[in-house]
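The protein record quoted in full:
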Amino acid sequence: MIFQKKMYRVVAVFLLMLLAGGLSVLAFAPIGVFPMAFLSLAVLVYWLDDTALKRTGFALGFAWGLGAFGAGVSWLYVALVRYGGMFPPLAVLAIFLFCAFLSLYPALAGMFYVRWRYGGLLRRSLLFAALWVFAEWLRGTLFTGFPWLSIGYSQTPPSPLAGYFPVVGVYGVSGVVALVSGLLALCVAKGVGHIRTAGPALARSELMPTFFINSGVRFSAALAGVILLGGACLSFIRWAEPDGSPLSVSLIQPNIEQSLKWNPAHHAETLQVNAELVRKAQGSIIVLPEAALPTTLDLLPPEYLKELTDSVAQQGSALVVGVFMSDDGRFYNAAVTLGEGSGQRYAKNHLVPFGEYSPPLFGWFYRFVDIPMSRQSTGGANQPPLRLFGRRIAVNICYEDVFGAELLPSLPQAGLMLNLSNLAWYGDSFAQPQHLQIARARAMETGRPMLRSTNTGMTALVLPDGSVPSVQPAFTRGVLEVTVSAYRGLTPYAWWGDVAVMVLAGAVILAAWVWPLPVPRPLR
């Protein structure tokens, strides 16, 4: 009977962690209820502090991760099945294994928290925050990284923590979220402990005063409030300023179904759609999204390239085209310029594993899916920004803007950032609004506007304060005309990148490791 009760409790807590992880997705776009990030992590911390077993801490973190990633990246199913042709049960298995791998990072954070927690509320909260930062950084770095759904992304405006993005970047914001969540969870744990020791005979009216007697609880709750207020105050600081006269930019969204783009029967139609949209565009800079033209640059009909060039030359504009390039048997996902400033190019450097290249020992994966242009080459790090109309524009292609530190070498030279994307692979899912939210974080981190031209959405202008004044509705065909200024100046994050946050997190973890530890015990 006792064994059965223990098993029921284990299963119940595991399911609770799955639910808590899944609820964290509500904090991200498109739902955007940012307080859910605090609630989700607070539930995890509360139960982590209720166990003294490292393996239980690992299991709790793993369950939380399964819930978060299972709900948050379920859109991968669309790419694998609808467009990749993978057998549905096999796709489900592949996504489960991928989410299980990602869940190892919060699992390790949970395990080491149980192992090293010590001291009062603040020290334990700092330890959890440091471990969480380190786990997210590892997830975004190892094996080329997958930092999607870092908890910090959920805190774009209107969250009061948005002001921390230009200072500490997304990993730092994740640490702040984890710190506040830990403070709140441990305050509740401490308060519940006082209530439990008070005995059942204590009147209900006497419980709340008992909760607030402990000075550590009061201090921790106040500190959480100060952290939130500090982020709100930082939001009023403008770390960069406009540089020069505004520039008109036309961001094209062709809205071509992914299953048709690479169908030879529809190539002519796809080329014509893009040409017509270029002719309609009115900006000084006109942008076609990632892989807008369904072939390599050298295989495009010469008369078609001349048609595009003539269209922009008549109005003295520059055209940035997302197109594949080939060179000695290598293929590059690139952006090239035509018209004003012609002959420049940027080739994607950070490729997507399995989608754009095969990691070692995984060539067998392509026996189960059919992904066009899935064997690409990297363009090289630190490619120079494009120079158009006296401005320098740092280009990144699709997935690259998920890696904030990799965009920093283009600063301070670049005054604008331009992202070319094609998320048609993921259909009408959370992928598009989540990616736009990531772009908002990048704009705040760098102090630069982020221009986005996408195939099906979300084509938009993002300003350095994280606001989105202009956006083309998803799954519509059109040209988004925007006016934007280049910016100059550097944010603190642009100066030190992730180094400052990782040094702080490492110092906290190191202190926990070398500190003479008492026997770990729950606060309750």
Q: What stands out?
A: Residues 242-486 form a domain with the Nitrilase/N-carbamoyl-D-aminoacid amidohydrolase fold (CATH 3.60.110.10). The first strand starts at residue 241 and ends at 253. Confidence is low (pLDDT under 50) at residues 194-213.
